[in-house]
Design brief:
Layout lengths: L2 H11 L12 E4 L8 E5 L4 H10 L3 E4 L14 H8 L3 E4 L2 H5 L4 H9 L1 E8 L6 E9 L3 H10 L13 E9 L16 E13 H14 L6 E7 L8 E12 H12 L5 E3 L8 E11 L4 H7 L2 E5 L3 H6 L4 E3 L2 H5 L2 H11 L3 E4 L15
Parallel strand pairs: 2-3, 2-15, 3-4, 12-13, 13-14
Antiparallel strand pairs: 1-4, 5-10, 6-8, 6-9, 7-8, 10-12, 11-14
Helix pairs in contact: 6-7
Amino acid sequence: MLICNLMEHIETFAPLSLALDWDNVGLMVGDPKREVKKTLIALDITQRAVEYAIETGADLILSHHPLIFQALKKITDPLLLKLIERQIAAVCLHTNLDVAPYGVSHALAEKLDFEILDHLSMESGGKWFHLCVSVSSEHGKAILKAASTAGAGRIGAYDSCSTKMSVQGSFRPLKGSNPYLGKAGELSRTREVLIEFMVDEGALQSVLAAIKQVHPFETPLLYYFPVTNSNPAQGLGLLCKAKAPMTLAQLARHTKQRLGCPDLNIWNAGKSLEMTVDRIAICGGAGNSLIKDAARKAEVLISGDISYHNLLDSPIPIIDAGHFYTEFPVLEYLAGQLSHIGIACEILPIEKHDLPLKQTRI
């Protein structure tokens, strides 16, 4: 499979348009027209990850954290040079995978065996569009099918969502036109249907192309505009519920065992470790920005990289299981996505990852 085809598949589950403004995602090293035969999946692209890719014959590394954050004026980094010299491509999916309908926090919820109730935050880098198209009544079904197949009308856990109303259309073909109905110079009126969809930014161009391909009119009446609310399928962090009530202490032990993290920190916010928790907020990676959202909806937050002052200010208990261990479960999901389209892949073993906060005792 070509890398460009892989990128097309990525758009179906983690569109690059969902990434937050400050982020850098997508193909960072490599030729889109080059074939990929084996992929290494990792949280970070480090020297150890690149060496492992070379040893195992991987020609692409798919990572969660971006290899390149800032614009480059020169390429002298030994890591980038080694990727280029060995013709190993690099694709990175960061905040687009965080906010995608099934992403980092969803994989964490599955690993912890939690029931998902809602998102913590509707924050997303993607835009949502309201699209309207009118067409002759007999072609309404064809428009609905083409647009829905291309991705229109996907709202939360539903697809093929639309509204349709009967309207009367009027038009007058001018000189040089080739009308489907009516005659040049004469005002015509016809029964039409007005069909409305919600469309994610990443699917917008495909939906427009699909509609135009089946629309019978020479110049379709079609318009779209962005809306301020987000698709409820997207967002940061999740509100969850355990299969059975747990105390805060039991939840911490459950988290440690499920994620395989050697250590975790608990901030009890002045509450007893024997308090029973029911509504649990989670965020894979760094959850500082979601503490206020978690406090409004949940009794405890499970995340990583919680800073000292944010811990002190939190009104609810926090279980800090680490940035790495709360994100590592998503690699299995990525492996499943690549295997689904026939790309051989391997997850970088956990012991081969570089853990920046791993302590060395002396």
